[in-house]
Amino acid sequence: VPRRRDPSPAGAGLVIVGGDAAGMSAAAEARRADPALRITVLERGPDVAYAACGIPYWIAGEVDDAGALIAHDAEYFRRERGIEVRTGAEAVAVDPEARRVTTAGGEQVAYDDLVIATGARPILPPIPGADLPGVVALRDLESARRIQALLDGREAPRALIVGSGPVGLEMAEALCARGAAVDVVELAPRLLPALPEAIAEPVAEAVAGACAAVHLGTTLERIVAHADGAGLVATIDGRDARYDVVLLGVGVVPNAELAAEAGCALGDRGAILVDRRGRTSVEGIWAAGDCATAWQRQLGRQRWIPFATTANAQGRVTGSNVAGRPRRFAGVLGSWVSTAYGVGFGSTGLDVDAAADAGFRPEALHRDGRDRSGYIPGARPVRVRLVWDGPTGRLLGGQVSGRGEVATQLHVISTALAGGLTVGELAEVDMGYVPPLSALRGPVERAAAAAIGDAA
Ligand SMILES: Cc1cc2nc3c(=O)[nH]c(=O)nc-3n(C[C@H](O)[C@H](O)[C@H](O)COP(=O)(O)OP(=O)(O)OC[C@H]3O[C@@H](n4cnc5c(N)ncnc54)[C@H](O)[C@@H]3O)c2cc1C
Fold first, then answer.
1. What is the pTM of this model?
2. How many CA atoms lie within 13 A of 413 on its CB side?
3. Considering only CA atoms, which of 398, 453, 37, 410 is closest in space to residue 195?
């Protein structure tokens, strides 16, 4: 159980660096646990409590205005929750002995406890021109506003997306919806290289029939400003093409520098190492969200699993502990789901390589099914792949894709993983059935049955 420090004489309280999913969840939970605690949030940007996950839907025009992506503003937190939120306040150094944070403006902010929730940042590929205006590494609302500004007033903009991961594909669809001609360049020989080929296939088919042109196994060599001053010229495998906006989507790295310089140990992929309470290796400093490791419940280890779900849950646990109400993080499975061009796709738990690395003897198969009875108009396909440990039958992971209700199927697999089911047990879970809503034997049950050799 974490030891709570006595408040400093000046009552410095809790200071949180970073005001998004992890930081604001920590703040809100700390407030619930301790109505009297002094809580200050330092956020370097202009926004707090925003939904980065909603950005593609704002760019697409499905969400009218960026304000809809902001849960609450700084004024709300001050007025309704008694949390002081300072925007435009970047923390540049932490002194763990003096328990002080220094901001870029030179202010010294004292703390009793500090939560670092600085998130992650996009990787800038090492190519000339990656830092030009017009090249956007999507992360927060400010970067989304830059995209909007680059698109505004252009009748038929041209966009280049570098990387074909989930966010890259969500953005490709969003830009298509805005009337842009979209090119996607991917170094790997296929789309969504992080997913098994059978699962990525339905997505690739949907993208091929859409407005985006996908260039697989290709390299972006450089970007320069166009000679007439408007737009950019990107060189892709030796050929030049002009774009109004270039989006970088080649992955993210944790913003762990502030913590590392304060002496906090780093863990998987350079993220801040925390325990299941959210404590770092330095007394009085906690961390949560994309900047930190998270407990992977199947591996029983701290891994870097940067998702909104992880950040939110971990933020809540950390905030509760800091405020003196002890909680232990149940951990995550690494579940995620996405959608592009009408096809949903996602993954949960361990895939074959990770399972083998963890000492299992993984087996995998996929099966196609439908999300409701096939004779119902609108029944749509869902492909489910399951991964299990051969000797014990223990379910280890799963992936889904298709035009049907994939999230529901994925949630079933995640729940089975959390419950420690075998594939045999999963095949026999009793799920409700009515033809317009579900299949008599759904895609997950069919795949699980096949895994135990029951072909029915
Ligand atoms: C376009 C897009 C779509 C996404 N879609 C999904 C999705 O569908 N599902 C999903 O699970 N995840 C999704 N994600 C990922 C999700 O947004 C992140 O996992 C989540 O926001 C992490 O929350 P966080 O609070 O840890 O970090 P962040 O949201 O990155 O917040 C960190 C905050 O800290 C601030 N900060 C950083 N350094 C400092 C400093 N030194 N001083 C002060 N402030 C600082 C930053 O400005 C930022 O506001 C998406 C991400 C993007 C960009």
1. 0.96
2. 35
3. 398
